[in-house]
Amino acid sequence: MEHRAPPQKSLRFGIGLRREHFDDIADRLDEVDFLEFLPENFLRFGGRPSRVLREVAARVDVTSHGVSLSLGGPDPLNKTYLTELRTLLDELDTPWFSDHLSYSSAFGVEYHDLLPLPFTAEAVDHVVSRIQFAQDFIGRPLLVENPSYYMSYPDSELTEAEFVNEVVSRADCNLLLDVNNVYVNAQNHGYDARAFIAAMPADRVLQYHMAGHIQGDGFLVDTHSMPVRDEVMDLYRYTLETVGPAWTLLEWDHAIPSLDGMIAELSRIRETAASAHLAPGTLEVAA
Ligand SMILES: [Fe+2]
After folding, report:
1. 120 Cα–ligand 1 center, Å
2. Residue 147: phi, psi to the nearest 5?
C-alpha cells in the first residue's frame, strides 16, 4: 500500500508539545523546527489542548509519538484508537507517526509501561504483521522506537541490533532511534553502544530522541527528567557521523523545565550536531 512519502532525511531540532508550555509556545515557534505530540494527550480532549495543537501545527511541522499501540502485544490492535489517530494525523498532515517496538498491554490489561519483546524469530513475525497493519491503516510512514528495557528473555535468539534490523526491513517501516535508550541499554546489558549504532539501518532512521537518565542502584534509569548527559551527547555526535542527519527531538517528561530551559537544552543538542563531522553529501540536506 502507498503511504505518504517521508521527507528526505534532514537535521532539524524539536521539543515535545507539553501542557506546561501552552502559555508561551506559540510565541517561541521560531526557536524550534518541529514539535512532537503524544496523541493520547490530545485525541479525546477538545478545548485548549486541541486549539493549541492546531495553532502550532498550522505554523510548524508536528510529529505524532504514541505510547499505546502495543505493537508487540498479543491483543488485536485497537481499531478505535487507530481510526481516531488517522483522522487527527490527516487533519494535521504529519510527515509520519511513531510508537514503540515493545508492548504495553496484554490480555486486556493496560500496563502503562513499555515492555520489551523477546528477540526471537517468532516475535519478529508477530510484530512485523502488526506494524504493517498499523502503517497501512494510518497511511503514513510508521517509525518504531527502540525502547529502554530492564529485563531480558533467556530464549532470545537474536541480538537487539539484529532484531531491530529484521523488524524494520521485513515490515518496511522506519526507525526512531533513541540515542539515550541505546546508551542506557548498552550500559545495563553490557554491550557496545557505538557498535549498536553502527549496526542500525541508516537509510531508515528518520528521527532521533535525546533525553536524560539517572544513575540507579547498579543500573541506569531512563527517566527523561534531566539534561542530556555528556556521554549521550558524545554518542549523538557519533550517531550523526555514522547514521547521518535526522530530525532530533529533546524528550523531557518529568520535572519539565520552563520553555526557556527546554530551548537552552535544545541549543546544547544543536551545538553538538554542529560539531559533528557529517559525511560529504549530507550537509546539503542538513540546511
Ligand atoms: Fe524516546
Report:
1. 23
2. -85, 165
For the four alpha carbons of 197, 232, 266 and 254, in that order, the dihedral sign comes to: positive
Residue range 177-220, pLDDT digits in tens: 999 999 999 999 999 999 999 999 999 999 999 999 999 988 99
Distance 230 CA to ligand 1 centre (A): 17
- Which cell numbers hold the place of 50? 486541541
Q: Which of 37, 23, 31 is nearest to 264 (CA)?
A: 31
Q: How many domains does the structure of the chain reveal? A: 1
Task: Kindly state whether residue 6 falls inside one of the protein's structural domains.
Answer: no
Q: How many Cα atoms are found within 13 Å in the side-chain-facing hemisphere of 151?
A: 10
Q: How far apart are CA 105 and CA 128, in angstroms?
A: 17
Tell me how far the alpha carbon of residue 100 lies from the centroid of ligand 1, in angstroms: 8
Domain encompassing residue 54: 13-286
- Surrounding residues of ion ligand 1, Cβ less than 5 A: 178, 209
In a domain, 40, yes or no: yes
The x, y and z cell numbers of residue 44, run together, are 479525546
Distance 1 CA to ligand 1 centre (A): 28
In a domain, 8, yes or no: no
H-run or E-run covering 194: helix 193-198
The answer to whether the pTM exceeds 0.70 is: yes
CB 227 within 8 A of CB 212: yes
